[in-house]
Amino acid sequence: MPKITELLFDCDNTLVLSEELAFEACAQLANEILEKQNVDERYTGPELMVDFVGQNFRGVVKGMEKKYDFQLTDEEREGYVKQEEDRVIATLEKKAQPCVGCNAELEKLAKSKKYGMAVVSSSALRRVQASIKKVDQEKFFPPNHVFSAATSLPVPTTKPDPAIYLHACKEIGVKPGECVAVEDSKSGTLSAVRAGIPTIAYVGSYHNPEKAKDVADMLVQNGAQVVMNHWSEFEKCLAEIEAS
Predict the structure, then answer these.
(1) pTM, rounded to two decimals
(2) Using only C-alpha atoms, what is the Rg of the chain?
(3) Buried-exposed string 156-189: b where 16+ CB fall within 10 A, e elsewhere
(4) Exposure string (b/e) for 36-62, b if CB count within 10 Å is 16 or more?
(5) Are 201 and 220 in contact (CB under 8 A)?
(6) Which spans in the chain are helix H?
(7) Mean pLDDT in runs of 10 for the chain (244 residues)?
(8) What is the rounded CA–CA span in Å between residue 149 and residue 156?
């Protein structure tokens, strides 16, 4: 395979323990939307994660529109997206923590100067920037190498669409086969795999061992090449892909 020169990291629950915090804030707004549309269903944060993990809020709203058979205008939908972004950022700035062992591994990678590093997320750019700043990771990533499917593309999208990975590769100046992605969700894994990028499945943010194993199996079934249970395993997982 081509020499790996670039590492592409998902943000939420891969670099930063942000998914549960974000979905807590998302659920509140999602329920306000459902109430306004006279839909009786209500979500908790964990329930919303089950249905929409790995998607940005634009994808969540479109998914609810389809599931509950209502239609928002583009203006209404984008208004909710902006509200959600503001609420989530406020929560993350107070409570976000790095994924266990992640910062130490990023420090080693930065010192080695062997690879370029970028963030490739479905989440809005402001949210990603707030997350990595809160956990002292922004120093590892050039500002123009932080990419958002919700913000960085001419037409906003969400994973599993591979568009954001293809865009990141083009902007950085690398081919997909010269990169390795790290993802924790089905939608993220599919996005990277469909872009032609070898992918590590990270399951260290799943606290229940049985859940972590189930997710690992599912991500491998969807194209991930290696499973990483803890960030301390990153070097070994990367070496395994480079040797394939």
Answers:
(1) 0.86
(2) 17
(3) bbbbbbbbbbbbbbeebebebebbbbbbbbbbbb
(4) eeeeeeebebeebbeebbbbbbbbbbe
(5) yes
(6) 19-36, 45-52, 57-68, 74-95, 102-112, 125-134, 163-172, 186-194, 209-221, 234-242
(7) 95 94 91 97 91 85 95 96 93 95 98 98 94 98 97 94 98 98 97 98 94 97 98 98 95
(8) 6
